[in-house]
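Now produce a polypeptide, keeping tokens residue-aligned:
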Amino acid sequence: MNKFNKTYIFGISMVSAMGGLLFGYDWVVIGGAKPFYERFFDIASCANLQAWAMSCALIGCVVGAVVSGVVSDRFGRKWPLLVSAFLFTIASLGTGMAASYTTFVIFRIIGGVGIGLASALSPMYIAEVAPSHLRGRFVSLNQMTIVIGILAAQVINLLIAQKVPVGATDEFIRTSWNGIIGWRWMFYACAVPSSVFFVLTFFLPESPRWLMKAGKGDMAFPTLKKIGGEEYAQQEMTNIQLTLNDVTEKVDFKSIVNPRFRNVLYIGIVLAVFQQWCGINTVFNYAEEIFKTAGYGVSDTLFNIVITGSVNLIFTLVAMFTVDKWGRKKLMLFGSIGLAVTYILLGSAFYFQIKGVAVLSLVVIAIGIYAMSLAPIVWVILSEIFPNRIRGAAMALATFGLWIACFVLTYTFPLLNKGLGAAGTFWVYAGVCILGFIFILRKLPETKGKSLEEIEKLI
């Protein structure tokens, strides 16, 4: 029986997963800064500019996701992760120093490219180095670091922002310390972990599976040996080679749309889109509007967001210890139907104008369900279902779909909220979750405990 070096696997997985931490921080920090930079740039009364400020980073995410497929297949997983760390550092400093709305948007887009790269590469790298029986747990580390990044952004926003009086005017907020300086430090703070990620990435070994695909098996063997010993390394290299015998030097679009891969691409893209259209990210991006409707002020909202972030972290840890025991499919089914029921209740609370703790409790329940199911498990599934020969390009395509879906979700929430009200909006999300439940029940195979090569044969 192979003795796996879990400490080593954990170490390289955590370094890779720092991309997830920065992804989570950069993605959520804007929610806490929103009440202040909108007054600073004088866009508080312009819905279009508000929506663009919130969603522009998603354009960068889409670009980063698309580019990740090309660069990861050509240059490996390590060096594109290094680029994403560099982009995070530049974006956090540039956004914080922005003197104009246009500059702010440009650096948000640059940060989005870093998110797009990291969101595709971090889970893929971990899946390619982790043994099959531990893969779900280690890939879930990426989601855990995303959640830690989210919580860090929420806590830092709360600590930086000074108390805002209930009923404060736009002018009061604009001329306050929060409105002039405070929101900038919310973005600056990300430069510290970004720099650490940049330095540590230099010490990562390249993915053994990519090295094998690139014809560098002699370089892959030492890493595999360090992970599980000599016997494990030889066995893994044999298994990997069997799936690469007919690999071409270059993966092109024609290879991706090959009928042999159509089913697995279909499953991956639908799950990626569903993870976003289930609606939970509106709670993080538009917390101010949701909690304002529930009767909370700006400072209380920032505190409530920290509560949701803490719950997010706790239930992500639950997912890490259940994904390799319960399996991917069961958790996905639980998450889909659980969110549908919670959204129906949440929509009803808004419909009957029930406010305060009741709404906060339902939001917390929804986040807990999402955190132990759809949030981490979709990334686990995406990192393991695609064949070796197209994994980089296919992961990029699925992540591209995810970020397009996220852009649609983020941009349409204010429109749905205005047209249907908070109740109707959450009922729409409930309907999406029911459709997701049906799709998962019918189409998703269980991949628990199978090697990447076994999954390739299965699907």
